[in-house]
Target: Amylo-alpha-1,6-glucosidase
Amino acid sequence: MSEQVRILNGNTFVVSDERGDIEASRTDPTGLFAWDTRFLSTWVLTVDGERLGTLSVDDLQYFETRFFLAPGGGTVYIDAKLSVMRQRTVTEGFRERLAVLNHGEQAVELTVRMEAGSDFSDLFDVKNDEGKKGELYRSVERDRLVFGYRRDTFHRATEITSEPRGQLDEQGLTFKIRVEPQSHWTCELNVTPILIGRGGKRTRLGGPKAAEDMGEDLDRWLEGAPTLECEWGPLRQTYRRSLIDLAALRFSPLTSGGRSLPAAGLPWFMTMFGRDSIFTSLQSLPFVPELAATTLRELAARQGSRFDDFRDEDPGRILHEIRYGESAAFLDQPHSPYYGNADATALFVVLLDEYERWTGDKALVRELEVEARAALRWVDEYADLLGNGYVWYQRRNEKSGLENQCWKDSWDSISYRDGSLPGFPRATCELQGYAYDARMRGARLARLIWKDPDYANMLEKQAADLKRRFNKDYWVADGEYYALALDAEGKQVDVLTSNIGHLLWSGIVPASRARAIARHLMGPRLFSGWGVRTLALGEKRYNPIGYHVGTVWPFDCSFIAWGLRRYGFKKEAAQIAAGILDAAEYFDGRLPEAFGGYPREATKYPVQYPTACSPQAWSTGAPLLLLRTMLGLQPLEDSLVVDAALPAGIGQIELLGIPGRWGRVDAFGRGLLRTERQGRMRPELGTAVKRRARAGASA
Model:
């Protein structure tokens, strides 16, 4: 099976084989997708009836790829005097420039054919192997080929045009061409998704635009982010890859006025996710803070306002996921939007406070005061399903709602030591940490910006009470760690997991217990050498390639490292950063959603997880948060504190032009000389200094 080639722009993406061809099956996420619908499922190029072989594929930009092809296959080409180039650019649709080059001494006459088709599968149809319920049609309309799909008021179409115009039929386009010796023939094909509304009104879901414009937009994006100067080349590559992938994943909801937030990941999650968008915005705040502002506004605009069992909606609850395809339109699934998570609501308040600390944007905090208070009310009232002061979850939509509504949302992620699964409701530990942090941060906003000291005092009292009870009920005394969850009877779900690192990040762990937690996180059961496993080695359900039961998630590790720094464990945080950044080098700078939890000494390379999303937003954001953690960047009023602790071998880091309420400042630090440990970086403490800002401010 050939490797897939993916190019994307926001929630529009094209997945093909290495020839640029698309031959999608019902369960194969290849094709042109936009707004959760596959607008093109067949796109196959032939010359004189033959498929082409791949010479090379150039990854030009996240939105543009060039394929170099030749007739025939294998190692001996039928006609080495002929080659073909396909250059594909994706915006909301895509444009393909086709060139046939004759390298011979004689003119050639050829038949160039592009087979085309669309099944208009909803992304959930592909994921769940569902058939279509409406009517597919095809038509040739003068200068264009049109594929369409109707189901009641849901009407989508795909338009295909070419210049020069080919001979059109309902299965594709044919070109009869003559190419002179040492010459070439070119053609431009445009594929445009169309939404057809009431009365037949046609709305192009964006049309092809110049690659030059998109390139300039990417240049502006990169120029606006801090500049990284680093002696260790792979870190520069990873940093640049992260910024480019964040640009690729920018998604502009219809209500955002063109402003962007992070879509969760390709191919399944190219849309707004409450949890993922918030975590990614937190990771990227020191680099591209505008993502956080859009995330906050767009999530606030869709905040729950009623009780709806089908969507698991409550007043004040922040959405989990929103979809735009057929299955959401006809309520075949509840994502219009769906609210089935138990963490995004508290995390919304956490992001609002962290955003203000970095940017000083008090206006947005005032603008979203009602929504932030509603979120805190949800944590206090609607999330407390058993009335005992904890955040619980249990889906009300038994047919299509999510069972596990924490970030480890797979079916077997929450288990006892003996491997059995608890019933519902469940109260996982990190949810309580997020609730604690949200109350403490909400209290700060209430006191300083909303000018409501009584509300601030109430939130702080609630937080202190939660911290006291949590440390009594969740502490596993015989292991000196926190249980993964409580079950409905109050019994501890007592496995050892990476979730305890999120507790350090939230601040709910007393200082007296922090060292025990750090020891577990860096011990051989949890720390693989590449990163922290989601479930500890030796637990009954441990599986190094199990989705949430033994794999390493870069996003998870980045927040664990941030939590370790919060409690002063600089060396341990640097060790996690070293492992994850070493892994990134093997993935060419693009960290996947997850990778195998095998011990590092047992694997020369980090083991790929077979179905990981890539790029994925919070994995893309992980190196950014690790940079912040290594440099010890922390806003303090109108200044930026720098306290670097770098892995050995990373050399000197300079992060220039960090945006925030201080204007733009520079920060740098140095690790110890590179030493070899399994051939990669060994974590040690570095040094840090503060450097004068370009604009004259002080770090």
